[in-house]
Amino acid sequence: MSPVHRHPDHRSPLVFEVHELGRRAGVMKRIETTVPAPAELGIAMIEVPKDSDMELDLQFQCVSEGVLASGTVTVQLRGQCSRCLDDIEAEDSFDVQELFFYPGNEVEEDESLVIDETIDLEEALRDAVVLELPFTPLCRDDCLGLCLDCGVNLNRDPDHSHGETIDPRWSKLADIGGDTPN
């Protein structure tokens, strides 16, 4: 069964022409550009904001099977720290590498194709970024988180305490106390 691949939207800033590579192995084309980020590029706690700048530094190289796209994408990240719930805003770079097969090659359904002498990098960029995002992002490596009793941010008040606590199972015994005779 032949896999079904959709035709790329030529209006998308992530669709690139590769016609000038001419299917000659070894021919390269370098792309350095800034494009808007697509929607839903992230996970629950951290994401790349829609339409924020994505800086692409890519190389398209013609190989016998197709076009190898490799390089880096630099993005702005926005989210919440999984320990203290403070906002996170950062910049990070991710490696991208995807082989786009020429039509006529036998490929699996999830493999990328050169269609109409173009390649659509959206899925490759999505895979490169989303799969590398931290599942539990931190505002900093030594984040102290929140107080388990009252929810105070321990990063802002590291000396925060509630005094000595007594295990509720033993609290009745504390009332019995007092001095014991010798």
Automatic annotation (TrEMBL):
Pfam families: YceD (PF02620). This is DUF177 domain-containing protein. It comes from Tessaracoccus defluvii.
